[in-house]
Every structure is written in C-alpha cells, then in structure tokens.
Amino acid sequence: MIFWATWCEPCTRDLPQIQALHKQYQRNGFEVVGVNLDMAGAPIQEYIDNYKVTWPQVHEEGGLESRPATDFGIISLPTMVLIDKTGVVKSVSTSVDDLKEQIPELLK
C-alpha cells in the first residue's frame, strides 16, 4: 500500500521503480494499492493517466488529516506499507530500496 499525493515529488521520483517491481513480481502475488491523500480538486486522474499507474487507487479528501492518513498514522509522503500474504504488516515507511530487498523474501 502506497500513500501518495500528486504534489509529492518523492512519490513521483519513486514511481518508476515501484512500477518496475510491480511488473516483475505481480505474477508471484505482489500487488500495489495506492491511497491518494490529495485535497479536493487535485488532478488525480490526470496524474494516474500521465504516469500510467495501473494498480487500484483509493482516494479520500483531506490530505494528511483524512481518515486513511490518521488511521494509519501517516505523517509524510510517500509512505509505503508492506503487507504479507496473510495480511500481516511487515514494514511501514519502507523505501524503494527496502522493497527491492523485502519483496522476494515475502513471496517465497
């Protein structure tokens, strides 16, 4: 699960690497769900189309004050939550480098 926003430059910088990981490991069960934390009126769909984001997205207005952000304790973006096949959270605030290391292990 990736918490992100259209204005988040690190989110955009990480996106190609996350897309590559998704493409590489999707057939092994790796899935990505985006949780967009933009405010009302943000160009969310244009961003998704422009960057060819293929995974499902959830959006709830309110930014870092939205229910998903407060429920998950999100204080900065991007925040990545790595969840194993059984639904157990394995890592929070995972970097792309951490994902590269952890995904193969979780998919064994």
Indicate the percent of residues in helices.
Answer: 25-40%
Structural class: alpha/beta
Largest sheet: 5 strands, mixed
Which range does the strand content fall in? 15-25%
Morphology call? globular
What is the β-strand count? 5
Task: Please provide a brief summary of the model.
With 108 residues, the protein is of the alpha/beta class.
Give an overview in words:
This protein is an alpha/beta fold and 108 residues long. It has helices at 9-25, 44-50, 67-72, 96-106, and strands at 2-4, 34-36, 57-59, 79-83, 89-92. The chain has a five-stranded mixed β-sheet with strand order 3-2-1-4-5, with no helix packed on it. Strand 2, helix 2 (44-50) and strand 3 (57-59) form a beta-alpha-beta unit. It is globular, with a radius of gyration of 13 Å. 18% of the residues are buried. The model has no long low-confidence stretch (mean pLDDT 93).
Write the layout of secondary structure elements.
Blueprint: E1 2-4, H1 9-25, E2 34-36, H2 44-50, E3 57-59, H3 67-72, E4 79-83, E5 89-92, H4 96-106
Parallel strand pairs: 1-2, 2-3
Antiparallel strand pairs: 1-4, 4-5
Helix pairs in contact: 1-4
Defining key terms:
single chain; 5-stranded mixed β-sheet; globular; 108 residues; alpha/beta
